[in-house]
Design a protein that fits this description.
The protein has 844 residues and is mainly β. The chain contains 15 helices and 45 strands. The strands form 8 sheets. The chain has a 22-stranded antiparallel β-barrel. A 5-stranded mixed β-sheet has the order 3-8-9-6-7. The longest helix is centred in the first third of the chain and has 20 residues.
Length: 844
Amino acid sequence: MNFQQKIFYSLIFIVLVFSFNEVSAQQKDVNKLTRKDILAMDYDHLLEMPFEDVLKLAEKMGVSMDELYELLLNKDVTAASKKAESSFEAPLSTTVLTGEQILASGARNIEEAFRLVPGMIVREKTTGNFDIHIRGNDNIPSNNLFVYSENSMTLVMIDGRQVYNYVNGGTFWETLPVDIIDIDRIEIVRGAASALYGANAATGVINIITKRPENSKLEVNGNVQGGSLNTKIANLSTGQAINDKLSYRVSGNYQYMDRTTDKLLALDPLDSLFRNSTVPGLYDAYSGILNPEELYKVEDLFSLPDPSLPWLKYVNPKDGDGSAKYQRPEMARDRYGVNGFLFYDYSDDINTRVSLGSQYSEVISSTYGDQVTPLSTRYSQTSYIDLYTKIYGLSLQANYNFGWQDIVVGDDGFKLDLDVFNAQAEYDFEFGGLNLRPGIYYQQASQNDKPHLDEIGNGYLNAKRTINAVSGSFRADYSINDFRFIGALRAEKYNVNDDVYLPFQFTASYNLDNAHFFRANYARANRSPFAVDSYSNYDWDRTARSFPNSIKFVGSENLDLAVLDNFEIGYRMKPTKNIQIDIEAFYSIARDFGYLSPDSVVGNFAAVQSTQFNFTDPNSGSVVKIERPVPAAGIPEFVQMAYQNIEVESHQLGVTANVSWVANENLVITAYGTYQQTTLKNYYPLTTNEIIGQMTQDAGARLQTNGDNALGVTETSFFEGAGYDAYPSVLAYSANRPDVTKDEVDHEATPSFYGGASLDWKGLQDKLGVFVSTYFFTEQVMRTQYGTDRTSPKGIVNTKVSYKIYKDNAVFVNARNVLDNSSKELGWMDETSGVYMAGLQFNF
């Protein structure tokens, strides 16, 4: 048992001891609830209460029952402007998802819960592992590595603490130490928000806000469930307010899920290189060895012949039978986390929160490397400590995140230590209707693979590399009558970029009779630098593999950072007291994407083209006479890949609509959907392999132009594709080849429509709960260097039915994808299936 497992089981033991000591006094008495207790409730909790208890709460608050419903229907949200306000009056496109909603829905984890949120694209990759995007902009740039399908443009936080991945951008969702049991609410802002939250909040911000105990009696709650695909999920939490100032919570969570298969897909790395070749018979000679529709057992996949050199293995010979890379090929997700929270409220104006926790996770999910299969194993062990203090208008927060990750298990270069330190200070000034909020921020994000070089052999960084950021912000918020104006500006400076970035936000809103709310917003946001893009220093030795024999990856410390401009108008209305409609129209332009591209090529060119030559088998040492077609332009022996900017721009135009209807105290219905058109301008249709092939061909043409004798060519010659390293190779390639143009195309990787609906019903005097939800997305097409994969439209139906057997303790059945629609949801990923579970929910 390792150290973190000991912590996990020790906390569970402590929770159980407290629960047995205090369980007799845990039932909530409505008559004893304070005004603070009532305001801490949410609308879903209110709906679960007996009607007579709701009347008592309304009487305590001094409002009518309808006013109480309204008070709790529009909970305060802070993410939209960093100021508490009704969600109806939020100046940006904002959704608040409560912990009770998530629990009632049956979502297995935080990621799946986002299928309840408008404007979010949520696709399951392997069981329980999801691809999460706000409005898309995924798979940009296309025709490259799988990593560019990941969302690196949305900032994720837990209680304001960033949980972003600064290795190569995005969020490793399985590494979140908290789970559904910890959530008070999740606030989601759609659209550019870097002026408020800093870099990487380009398409939006997700802030997961954890619970805090309000009751002086010990509260114990949790749930356990299990079912098909070997699913096992457990959550446990306890906490109490020790006195009117001091309170605490501790929690633990565990998840295990199997994949729908223990097999892997094989991708042909040469398919895109040779498919359009003009050399007669070349594609036929190399194709047919791999079946792109077939799944292989790990040991079978790792013994396949290489498509280009059939006497060699398809994968790196040193990988053996693949057992080191896929120790548990049947496993999709195995993780646990522990958390502790301590709160001290000296007064309403002075309070402090200390949080700490740890997690360990293993997943098989989409690869972050250059794999011959689309899936790889990822290990992560991380911990955190977070300190937040508010003293009147001054807010201070500092946190430290540390641990290690093996991003592509079994591959060179991808195991590293990480530590990220963040600190910020903000102050609120109030002058009548004017609120001013200046702030300063500092971040240091370090990645270090040196301690693991003996194990992994060759690092991607081969050093400790750090990205520092210093920034300052200023936000002005002015209200007059029913009008409100917000302006925010931020200045960010990084140690790896010469520029100062200035994200901004300008917002105006008008509230008419609290029934019609109009808003308009224009904002700019940017991504941050990443360690891989900035500092790559990796030599990929491909000896005994298909060409090229060697690839060098180099980073650039002066890349332009991706920037997104967002224009948005919105309208919210309440035609009746129990119906709310929210419509948002948006237009965004994203540019300056980073791109891993061939920078230069050294080619091997035969003076006399022949299909026969001698080759020394590296396994046996014997000389083998080989007969195969040789490309007329030669074979790339060495390729240098460099991180560069690409001219492509993403233009999005779309609209999202959301309707919430509180039919009565027992029934809530919502429906939402997004329709959008994504267009790529200055789009390059070439894959990485096609660029390498053409660069080699161009070098061969220059070799022939200069003359064989002038270059001393006898049997073979090496010639560098000179000139390509002077400026981005893709730009050079396009400029020098009139047959390749920069197109304007529909970006099919982002679905044109996605959305869902839900029904939450309580019956039998609130003992029976039924939650039915649907989620749907249209066709998508993912393009990588290995080719193109099309995903068909898909609809998913989920349902959870629970029954309270004693007070707030319930048994339930939970079905995800209840109709067992088994089609895949993202290019080259696993087919999904229905997951059927049963469980117990307990609250004392």
